[in-house]
Every structure is written in C-alpha cells, then in structure tokens.
C-alpha cells in the first residue's frame, strides 16, 4: 500500500528526520539533523545578538538592522534600569546538521508526505502575514471629536459644535492650515453618533442625512484633499455605545466593504452591547474582512478594555496579530484625576503591557485632552510627556478653532513628537516611584533616551530632584550625554555619567529630558535626525 511504501522509503532514506522550515522569504529549507538535547533554542532569525564588553554596552558598533536593534534593547529591559545583562545562548558544542542525498523517488515520496502539513502551513502563513497590514509603524497622530464634542447631535441650537460634516471639515481645515499636518497629525476620525438610526434598504450603515447630507464618501474625499487621512467608528455589538446601529457578526463583511468603498483609512471598533464570546469571534473576523477589501485600513480595537485589559483574559500576542492599536483602560475624562489614573494603571501593569507594544501594534491610553477645561498648563505637560514616553497614539480631542497658544505650544513641540514617534517603538517604563516623584524612562533609536520626572505632589510646593545618569541606569555611552529640557526647549549641557542633574519640578508637573549620546552610535544606516531639524544645539 501507499502507506507501507511511504514508511519504507522514510525508514531507509530519512533517519532522524527533523523538519525545519526557514520562512525567510527566499526559500524553504528541509534539513536533516540528529536528535538535539531537550532544550529550547531560538531559530536563527530570532536570536538576539550576542553582547560583548564595549563602551556602549551592546557590542562593538555595527550596522545592525533596526529590527535587531529593537530586539537587543528589549532584552535589556529584563534587568533593572535597562542594565546590560542579556541571557546568552548555550555555548556547548552541538552536533552539526547532516545532509543526505535523496533519489528522485525519495523526493516524490517526501513531497507526498509533506503535502497535507504544507497546505496547512501555507494557509496559516497567508492568514498571518495578511494580519500585518504594514500600517502605523509609529504611533498614529490626529484628531477625533469624542472627548470634546461627545454625542452632540443638536445642530439646530448648536450648529457649530454638533457631530456633523461641517465640524469634521472645519477640523480638517485647521489641521492643514495651522501646522498640525506637517508635525504628523494626519488622521481626522469620526467617533460615535455619526450614523442614522437605521441601516439602509440594502443593510448598509448610512450617515445621518441631516448632519451629513453629502455622505461619508464625500467627507472622506474632502479630508483627503487636505492631505489628511479619514477614520470612522463602529461597534462590535448590536448597538454603538450611544444606541446607533452596531456591527454584528453577520454584518461584518458588509460594513468592511462599505468602509472601503467610502475610502476610510482607519476603523475604531468599540465593544458595547455584546458579550465576550461575540467579541472573540467578531474582532478577528473584522480584521480578515478589512484585509479582503484590499484597502489599507488601520484597525483600532476596544476589545481589551471590555475584558479588564490584562492577561490572562487578554492575549496580547494574539491581539497584536489582529489590531494596530487597542484601548485597554476606561475612557479618559477631562480631569487631572483621570489622567493620573491612566498613568498609574500603565505603571502598575507595565510588565504585562510594555512587551505588547511595538511598530504596528500600540497600547492606546486614550485621547489628549490638552486644550480643554480640566487640566492646568503644568498638568497638560504631564499628559503629553507621559504619552510620549508610553509610545501612545496622539489623538487630540479639543476644539482646534479656539485652542489656546499654551496648548498649541505643548502639542506642537517638535522634540516631544520626535520622542513619541521614535522608530524603535519601545514603550517606556516607570523606573522609580516615591512619595512625590515618579521617574519614567524610554529607550530611543541610536542610543538616545527620554526621561520624565513627574511630581505627584499637590501641596503647591515645587520640589528639587537630583540624580545622575548612572543612577538612572544610563551607562551605555561612557563619554556622557547631551541633555535637553524638552518642554522648556533648553539645552542643559553635556553630562558625564556621574555628574549630578539638578532640576525642579512643579506640583502635578513634569520635566521631560532628552538624552543624546556623546559617543558614536552606528547601529543602522539611518542617521540620527539632525540637530538643526529639532532646533537643538
């Protein structure tokens, strides 16, 4: 029989067969290897680079690809304050792989054996690679209406502030005219309350005809004409959070197709009026449906926020293959208490949240409320600084027509945006917490760092803070670092590793420092952004 023949050919020609597939994009390797010790080894393309003694702590300078640079830095986060101890791979001598010569019949038999598993693997590869849509390699930036304008649908008595095409167009105009677009604020997104109360006769979502008389496609065209991108909102449930038609399991494909026809660039999918089982089916299904449309649509999921935001209920490994960004905590409110609660939650759970973030997949602590009514000037600095440290999406939710110059000064800070948009995509972490202070650190591209020193005190008294680079765990460049006060836009000077850094932090305020190494870092052919582009010394 064919089964006996297969068994015979394998037993004669393929002893100790170990199938190892190298999906490098070039070819598929099938190798023969002896039995290895029962230990887990990384495949070659996933091995972290070895670490050797050098002034920069990551081995001698090399043109290490950006991906490997990020992996090396992530490995260091497992040690206190980003120390340089990295677990190395075992150095015992392993038997070398053996190759064999196969006859034509051997090859035919082997292919027959491999057809079923190969078909499965190829199907999975096609599925999983399509989940990586190549979008949002840095945190997205833009504007959305929810925090500032909520579900205001009264266009008769409040025409300037109701959720309508006029409001969206006016915000698109301001992004294009007032320098926001050039800084990276490129998305103009709708939130809840844009749709009619019923679907159309063909079962498709439709906008409210009075507030969006031109239709969503025309609105998207207008936004695109300004050089911006357009986002829309739906809900994985029977209704949206404010009672408008939701996206159900049987309308996912229809809605994805509709959004693509409207030339939408981002979808936020909320999670009201559904249960955990529906979400577990619906969110991945929408990802597949969006990919089927052929249009690149960034995918924002609120799924984790409805499941407590933490493992084991939230599987961030799976989530990162489905969504480009996700909400995992409650909605932000226009208050200092709300901002502080979000920061504390991220700090308290950073060991679970930080590894989940990276290029194309971001933790979203919610919108920037800077420029509204609930934060002081100093507290507004805190939100912007910590969102930069957290590699968070920067979506403003304020009235750009009337926003103050103080708020614009914070939101348009080039160096702060540079920190937020760092290409490594490593989320920062809280490295120290005391009665009055929290210190947060973020590792940046090419040996740079950002440090946020936050004063939680509310007693009205500015407090001095003193430390040095060594105590902050920044030891890579033995020559020292140039340090800049980001929010005050002041160059503080060149600092050796043991030189004391003295700063003063206002109550409920922050000092954000940017550190640029004095020694040469050449991990990548991509150059460090020139100092003059950031107006730095």
Automatic annotation (TrEMBL):
Keyword presence, Lipid metabolism: yes
Pfam families: Melibiase_2, Melibiase_2_C
A single Gene Ontology CC term: lysosome
Enzyme Commission code: 3.2.1.-
InterPro entries: Aldolase_TIM (IPR013785), GH (IPR017853), Glyco_hydro_27 (IPR002241), Glyco_hydro_27/36_CS (IPR000111), Glyco_hydro_b (IPR013780), Melibiase/NAGA_C (IPR035373)
Reactions accelerated catalytically: a globoside Gb3Cer + H2O = a beta-D-galactosyl-(1->4)-beta-D-glucosyl-(1<->1)-ceramide + D-galactose; Hydrolysis of terminal, non-reducing alpha-D-galactose residues in alpha-D-galactosides, including galactose oligosaccharides, galactomannans and galactolipids; a globoside Gb3Cer (d18:1(4E)) + H2O = a beta-D-Gal-(1->4)-beta-D-Glc-(1<->1)-Cer(d18:1(4E)) + D-galactose
Domain (Alpha galactosidase A C-terminal): residue spans on this chain: 425-509
Cell compartment(s), UniProt: Lysosome
CDD domains per UniProt: GH27 (cd14792)
GO biological process, alphabetically ordered: glycoside catabolic process; glycosphingolipid catabolic process; oligosaccharide metabolic process
Domain of life, source organism: Eukaryota
PANTHER family per the UniProt record, alphabetical: ALPHA-GALACTOSIDASE, ALPHA-GALACTOSIDASE/ALPHA-N-ACETYLGALACTOSAMINIDASE
Family: Belongs to the glycosyl hydrolase 27 family.
Protein name: Alpha-galactosidase
Organism per entry: Chelydra serpentina
């Amino acid at each position: 029989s064919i089964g006996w023949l297969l068994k015979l050919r394998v037993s004669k020609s393929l002893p100790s067969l170990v199938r190892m597939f190298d999906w490098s994009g070039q070819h598929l390797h099938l190798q023969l290897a002896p039995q290895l010790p029962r230990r887990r080894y990384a495949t070659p393309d996933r091995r972290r680079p070895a670490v050797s003694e050098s002034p920069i702590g990551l081995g001698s300078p090399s043109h290490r690809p950006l991906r490997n640079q990020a992996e090396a830095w992530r490995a260091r986060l497992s040690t206190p304050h980003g120390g340089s101890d990295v677990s190395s791979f075992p150095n015992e001598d392993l038997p070398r792989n053996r190759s064999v010569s196969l006859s034509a019949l051997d090859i035919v038999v082997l292919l027959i054996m491999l057809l079923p598993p190969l078909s499965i693997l190829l199907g999975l590869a096609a599925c999983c690679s399509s989940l990586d849509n190549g979008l949002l390699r840095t945190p997205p930036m833009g504007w959305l209406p929810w925090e500032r304008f909520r579900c205001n649908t009264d266009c008769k008595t409040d025409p300037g502030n109701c959720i309508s095409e006029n409001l969206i167009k006016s915000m698109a105009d301001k992004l294009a005219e007032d320098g926001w677009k050039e800084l990276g604020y490129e998305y103009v997104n709708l939130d809840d309350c844009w749709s009619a109360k019923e679907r159309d006769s063909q079962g498709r979502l439709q906008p409210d005809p009075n507030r969006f008389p031109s239709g969503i496609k025309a609105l998207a065209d207008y936004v695109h004409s300004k050089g911006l991108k357009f986002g829309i909102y739906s809900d994985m449930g029977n209704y949206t959070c404010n009672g408008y038609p939701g996206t159900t399991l049987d309308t996912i494909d229809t809605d994805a197709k509709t959004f693509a026809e409207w030339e939408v660039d981002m979808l936020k999918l909320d999670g009201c009026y559904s249960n955990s089982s529906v979400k577990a089916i619906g969110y991945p299904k929408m990802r597949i449906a969006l990919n089927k449309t052929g249009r690149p649509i960034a995918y924002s999921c609120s799924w984790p926020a409805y499941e407590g935001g933490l493992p084991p209920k939230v599987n961030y490994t799976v989530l990162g293959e489905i969504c480009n960004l996700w909400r995992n905590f409650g909605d932000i409110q226009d208050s200092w208490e709300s901002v502080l609660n979000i920061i504390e939650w991220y700090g308290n759970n950073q060991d679970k949240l930080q590894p989940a973030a990276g290029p194309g997949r971001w933790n979203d602590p919610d919108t920037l409320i800077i420029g509204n009514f609930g934060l002081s000037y100093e507290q507004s600095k805190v939100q912007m600084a910590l969102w930069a440290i957290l590699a968070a999406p920067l979506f403003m939710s304020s009235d750009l027509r009337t926003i103050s110059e103080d708020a614009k000064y914070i939101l348009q800070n080039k160096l702060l945006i540079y920190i937020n948009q760092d290409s490594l995509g490593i989320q920062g972490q809280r490295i120290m917490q005391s009665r009055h202070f929290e210190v947060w650190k973020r590792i940046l591209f090419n040996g740079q760092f950002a440090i946020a020193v936050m004063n939680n005190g509310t007693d009205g008294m500015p407090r001095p803070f003193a430390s040095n680079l060594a105590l902050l765990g920044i030891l890579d460049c033995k020559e020292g670092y140039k340090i800049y006060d980001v929010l005050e836009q002041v160059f503080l000077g060149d600092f050796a590793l043991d030189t004391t850094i003295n700063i003063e932090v206002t109550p409920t305020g922050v000092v954000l420092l940017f550190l640029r190494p004095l020694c040469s870092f050449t991990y990548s052919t991509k150059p460090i952004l020139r100092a003059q582009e950031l107006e730095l010394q």
